[in-house]
Write a structure and sequence with these properties.
The complex is a heterotrimer of chains A (416), B (327) and C (375).
Chain A: H1 2-15, E1 20-33, E2 36-49, E3 53-57, H2 64-71, E4 79-88, E5 96-97, H3 106-111, E6 116-119, H4 133-144, H5 149-162, H6 168-172, H7 181-193, E7 199-203, H8 211-228, E8 231-236, H9 239-245, E9 248-253, E10 256-262, H10 263-268, H11 273-280, E11 332-333, E12 341-342, H12 402-406
Parallel strand pairs in A: 3-8, 3-9, 6-7, 7-8
Antiparallel strand pairs in A: 1-2, 1-4, 4-5, 9-10, 10-12, 11-12
Helix pairs in contact in A: 4-5, 4-7, 5-7, 7-8
Chain B: H1 2-29, H2 34-44, H3 51-61, H4 67-79, H5 94-128, H6 133-147, H7 150-164, H8 175-178, H9 184-221, H10 224-231, H11 236-274, H12 279-289, H13 292-320, H14 322-325
Helix pairs in contact in B: 1-13, 5-6, 5-9, 5-11, 5-13, 6-9, 7-9, 7-11, 9-11, 10-11, 11-12, 11-13, 12-13
Chain C: H1 29-39, H2 41-58, H3 60-63, E1 83-84, E2 91-100, E3 105-117, E4 119-129, E5 133-141, H4 160-196, H5 198-212, H6 216-225, H7 233-264, H8 267-274, H9 279-316, H10 327-332, H11 337-342, H12 348-371
Antiparallel strand pairs in C: 1-2, 2-3, 4-5
Helix pairs in contact in C: 1-12, 2-4, 2-12, 4-5, 4-7, 4-9, 4-12, 5-7, 6-7, 7-9, 8-9, 9-12
Classes of the chains: A alpha/beta (416), B mainly alpha (327), C alpha+beta (375).
Chain lengths: 416, 327, 375
């Protein structure tokens, strides 16, 4: 898997070596609760190219918000970042691993708010009710940009004006409870952008707003993004918003990125059954009037439970018994398409040995699943991990030696 | 805001009128009156009281009057600052109560300040260091503190200081200064004595407020705006003290109104054990001896203390919270 | 290159959903509450300790070695007996009473060479077991030659240990009965106030406000002072519980009112009303079952206040009066600092009060967290 990832990165890098503002690699976050361990993030990997807008999509509970908080190192108890890297390359030549910086260090405080801004989902609760909007923006400016209070206030009013506040002076002296939801979200955006960060993490910024306000806020963000050149990590569960806002999309399911592509590819050429299902569940204009809307079968599994193999397999319409429920699909680059990766056994290259069952921490047992039944693989040789590290073949000749598996060399199943 | 205060003040007056009626009625209901005790005392002293003399006494004490008349006479007097005559001490009630009430007020106020000064840092520490050993110790102390009646703390403190330090810590003054005029030395002596009642009266409130503070802060720490403050790049200390604690203070101020009755009750009972020149001993004694006017005056004025305290707590709340202030 | 046909498999094949373990969503609300409660070890401990306390109180004469009213001038203010193993078996030291001529106080000298072995299941004073039958069996005791006072004796040589056990009957039940009264009163008035609103609600709120503007203890004391003196212990006990509940009901009524107000706005209540359900039916079938767990929690947390109230009143001489025995009455002996300094075991009833209040608080907290983990 690692070999594959570097492969993907190398190819991506070939286009522009200093392309990525931020690179998240194999991020793991666990919540240790009294009822058990919740593996919120299970090896999340993605990158955000400089100046682009990446949409992170997924159902509630898939780990979208935790990913955002992890980048800021703001995951609170009982959550804990268990592993992974977050390479932040602000200057363009020397990437810093944010996770290696102390949570409470000055360096981290300097990154928060100054280099990376964040907007939260609930505009009603994300501003402190006891301070005026202006004071709260000034606080960030004073922290990172200037020591001068007048200058800070000027900047605060300036940025409030920029986010389209009708009377910025008056707004600056208002308390949050005197503003509407949309106004508060504008204030939040103003606060997040007050120090012109290179990355803005927007965690469902429009979910709590009505449709008209949502459109305004999205337009505002889009405009500001163009103007300031900030990269945006846009977390949402709304495919419509993704289409409007994003350049690229990462689809998440149960703490993993299952598909990553440009926004066009996601909408016109989705590869992962989950992405396909997600798109099918959106009502659209001009569709059959009396047709039923497709819903994804079942629901997100209980967070305390463990799912073996591909996390989506219990709900997957293309479920292949014996394969999907035992083996975790690796991230594969979709042939010939630049920067389109997917984690699904339906795609060549995803079925990789060497690391398995990690989505629930339950290793696949050495039982031979009846992979012959899987339609697309009926005539193909299958390599299944054995408890002793051996390979098993179904009716076809093995193309791997046991040693390959033991070496952890992540061999691929050869398919033609 | 001004409207609000005026409305609250009027409300308060109405409430206090009812308190006056109720307390007067309660004590008037009491079977037997001070007069009965007084008459039997006079008879025992050898005097042979004629029926005429008894009747004269009854008129003097107003015992025979119907309730509305008695109450009317009394309330008119109260408005003019005359709380009636103490049966037992044969002096006007107002000459007995003010000094004692002043000490009660000082003790209650100091205790609440004491409770706040101790409970806020403890609660903040406890909430920000959840599930650590100091947190567990604070939690245990707080549970025990709520469970101990004030008079027991008072007793234990007295016994310990008597047996270990061989010092009498009762009262608010050393005997030498008790009747002396106020002076620097007397004030120093007062300070030497006053901390014990403050600790005793404030203990359970401290425990309670620590608990409220901890719970509130834990709530507030989950609030989105705290995360916003962190995302801004503020250090954890500023996040907690500037953004979280200030928001967690609201319920604490509201709780301050709630602990006032407990504080006043604690003061009453602790002062009996500690032998303080405050309302407690005289009030309970008046109740037992059925010295009606004295008891009613105390009950009424303790209620005034409580109601005014609550009003102040509400005003403080409006002062710190723009949502209430700008309503 | 066999790219799988994506369009076809979707929805075309039956999904073999795999069972996942430990599905917490399948546990009933009640079981979840029990589970949450059991997780809080302190609360479980509080609950068990309370059960033990109540059992000790119920069978007090069996656990107490002597009749609690038995006066023994040979042991006035005698301290707790000292344990000795001189006889190879746990026993107590003998004591000798002498009069200190200077201070005019009894002085006890212990003599541990002579051990009075502790015996189990001894026969002693006769008592009635729950009013059903008589017994003279006591859990422990010593031979008639000595007396065992594990927590010392009072001014008349009465056994403080036994008196605390018997006093628990009043002190522990005053809380339960008093809170029981106020729960009933508070639930009815709170429900009426929250459900019907309008004038009833307004009036109720003013009454509650009025009661809460008088400091608690002075109010208790004033009401208690109006109680007649020439009534039986049982009558007095009953009246004291009434006094306590007259004040505590306000807190309960407030809580219930708040809950009911919330339920009144809920859609299911409107639905029930629209379906033609009567007010009584809506209250009894839709609101009370929802509120009951909260009422229990609030009640459990109100018990300590009632226990402390009774103790304080009795301590001041306005609550239970001798010969009745309660922890507050026992603590009256400890009012004089000089006396307590000499005979510190007179404060042991205070420890009992603290233990009971602590356990009720622990229990109530655990219940609250179990019922309403986010509240």
């Amino acid at each position: 898997m690692t070999a594959l990832e570097t492969d993907v990165q190398r190819r991506a890098g070939a286009v522009n070596p200093n392309d990525n503002l931020i690179e998240v690699k194999d991020l793991h976050v666990h919540f240790h609760t009294t009822l058990g361990v919740v593996r919120a993030l299970n090896g999340v990997s993605f990158n955000i190219p400089r100046g682009r807008v990446l949409g992170i999509v997924g159902e509630s509970g898939c780990g979208k918000s935790i990913t955002g908080l992890s980048i800021m190192q703001l995951v609170g108890r009982p959550g804990k970042i268990e592993g992974g890297e977050v390479l932040f390359n602000e200057s363009g030549d020397k990437p810093v691993d944010i996770l290696k910086i102390g949570r409470h260090s000055d360096e981290m405080h300097h990154i928060r708010g100054n280099s990376i801004g964040m907007i939260f989902q609930e505009p009603m609760t994300s501003l402190n009710p006891l301070f005026t909007v202006g004071k709260q923006i000034e606080e960030a400016v004073l922290l990172h940009q200037t020591q001068n209070h007048e200058e800070a206030r000027r900047r605060a009013i300036n940025i409030l004006d920029k986010v389209g506040m009708p009377n910025p002076q008056r707004i600056a002296d208002s308390y949050p409870h005197q503003l509407s939801g949309g106004m508060r979200q504008r204030a939040m955006i103003a606060m997040a952008l007050s120090c012109t960060p290179t990355l803005l993490i927007a965690d469902e910024p429009t979910t709590a707003l009505d449709v008209t306000t949502e459109a305004q806020i999205l337009e505002l963000m889009r405009d500001l993004q163009k103007e300031i050149g900030t990269s945006i990590m846009f977390i949402t569960h709304n495919m419509g918003v993704v289409a409007q806002m994003c350049d690229e999309v990462a689809v998440m399911y149960l703490g993993k990125v299952v598909e990553r592509a440009t926004v066009d590819d996601i909408f016109y050429d989705p590869k992962h059954p989950y992405t396909i299902s997600l798109l099918r569940s959106i009502p659209r204009l001009g569709s059959q009037r009396h047709g039923r809307l497709d819903a994804i079968k079942g629901s997100v599994p209980d967070p305390y439970s463990t799912v073996t193999g591909c996390p989506f397999h219990p709900r997957c319409p293309s479920f292949m018994p014996g394969l999907c429920d035992t083996l975790v699909p690796a991230e594969t680059r979709v042939e010939a398409e630049h920067l389109h990766t997917v984690r699904c056994h339906l795609h060549p290259g995803s079925t990789v040995l060497g690391k398995f069952g990690s989505s629930g921490g339950v290793a696949a047992e050495g039982v031979v699943p009846d992979a012959v039944n899987a339609p697309s693989y009926a005539s193909e040789p299958m390599v299944i991990p054995g408890s002793g590290g051996g390979t098993v073949n179904n009716s076809a000749e093995p193309n791997l030696t046991p040693g390959d598996v033991d070496d952890g060399a992540a061999p691929r199943v050869n398919r033609k | 805001m001004l409207n609000y205060i005026i409305r609250r003040l009027l409300y308060m007056l109405v409430t206090l009128c009812f308190v006056a009626i109720i307390s007067f009625m309660l004590l008037d209901l009491t079977p037997g009156s001070y007069l009965d005790t007084e008459i039997s005392r006079l008879r025992q002293a050898g005097g042979n009281l004629s029926d005429g003399q008894v009747a004269a006494l009854k008129i003097r004490y107003g015992v025979g009057d119907p309730f509305p008349l008695k109450f009317g006479k009394w309330i008119v007097g109260v408005v003019q600052g005359d709380f009636g005559q103490s049966f037992e001490f044969s002096v006007p009630v107002s000459s007995l109560i003010w000094g004692r009430l002043a000490f009660s007020l000082i003790l209650a106020t100091s205790s609440i300040i004491f409770a706040w000064l101790i409970s806020i840092p403890l609660g903040v520490y406890s909430a920000t260091h959840r599930y650590t050993i100091p947190d567990y110790i604070i939690t245990v102390l707080q549970f025990v503190g709520v469970a101990i009646p004030e008079f027991l703390i008072a007793l234990v403190l007295m016994v310990v200081s008597a047996s270990v330090f061989h010092a009498d810590v009762g009262g608010l003054f050393s005997p030498a200064y008790a009747d002396a005029a106020w002076s620097g030395a007397k004030f120093a002596d007062f300070l030497k004595h006053v901390w014990i009642p403050i600790v005793v009266i404030g203990a359970s409130s401290t425990a309670w407020l620590t608990r409220v503070m901890r719970a509130n802060l834990l709530d507030v720490l989950n609030a989105q705006y705290v995360q916003t403050a962190r995302a801004k790049g503020l250090g954890e200390g500023l996040v907690i003290w500037k953004h979280a604690v200030r928001n967690a203070l609201h319920p604490l101020i509201m709780a301050a109104g709630g602990i006032l009755p407990a504080l006043i009750s604690g003061e009453v009972i602790a002062s009996i054990v500690l032998n303080l020149p405050t309302t407690g001993p005289l009030f309970i004694n008046a109740l037992i001896k059925k010295d009606t006017y004295l008891a009613v005056a105390f009950l009424l004025l303790l209620s005034v203390m409580l109601v005014v305290g609550n009003l102040l707590a509400d005003l403080a709340l409006a002062w710190v919270d723009p949502r209430i202030r700008l309503e | 290159m066999a790219t799988p046909n994506l369009a076809k498999p979707i929805g075309a094949r039956p999904v073999a959903a795999k069972a996942v373990k430990a599905d917490t969503s399948q546990i009933s609300q009640g079981r979840l509450m029990v589970r949450r409660f059991m997780q809080s070890k302190l609360s479980v401990f509080g609950g068990i300790a309370l059960i033990i306390m109540y059992l000790l109180a119920l069978f007090a004469p069996f656990f107490a070695p002597y009749d609690i009213n038995e006066i023994d001038t040979n042991y006035q203010w005698s301290g707790p007996s000292s344990l000795t193993f001189a006889g190879g078996w746990p026993g107590i030291c003998g004591v000798k009473q002498t009069l200190d001529q200077k201070n005019f106080a009894w002085v006890y000298t212990k003599d541990c060479t002579q051990s009075n072995p502790i015996q189990l299941f001894v026969h002693g004073s006769t008592y009635s077991v729950l009013g059903l039958f008589n017994s003279d069996l006591h859990l422990f005791g010593v031979s008639k030659l000595a007396k065992i006072y594990i927590w010392g004796a009072d001014s008349q040589g009465r056994d403080i240990f036994g008196r605390i056990l018997v006093g628990a009957r009043v002190s522990l039940s005053v809380g339960l009965v008093g809170v029981g009264f106020s729960t009933i009163l508070g639930s009815i008035l709170g429900t009426a106030s929250g459900y019907f609103g309008g004038i009833i609600d307004n009036l109720m709120q003013r009454v509650i406000e009025l009661i809460s503007s008088i400091p608690t203890l002075p109010l208790y004391a004033t009401i208690a002072a109006t109680l007649p003196h020439d009534i039986s212990v049982t009558q007095r006990f009953f009246l004291i519980t009434v006094v306590l509940s007259l004040v505590t009901w306000t807190g309960l009524a407030r809580q219930v009112r708040g809950k009911v107000l919330g339920y009144r706005g809920a859609d299911y209540t409107s639905a029930a009303r629209l379906a033609g359900a009567s007010h009584t039916r809506v209250i009894m079938n839709h609101m009370l079952p929802n509120a009951v767990s909260h009422i229990i929690v609030v009640a459990a947390l109100a018990v300590p206040g009632a226990i402390l109230g009774e103790t304080a009143l009795s301590f001041l001489g306005l609550g239970m009066l001798p010969p009745a025995v309660s922890w507050g009455v026992l603590l009256r002996d400890a009012q004089q600092v000089q006396v307590v300094t000499t005979y510190p075991w007179l404060m042991i009833p205070g420890a009992a009060v603290i233990a009971a209040v602590l356990c009720f608080n622990l229990l109530g907290d655990g219940l609250r967290d179990a019922v309403d983990p986010y509240g």
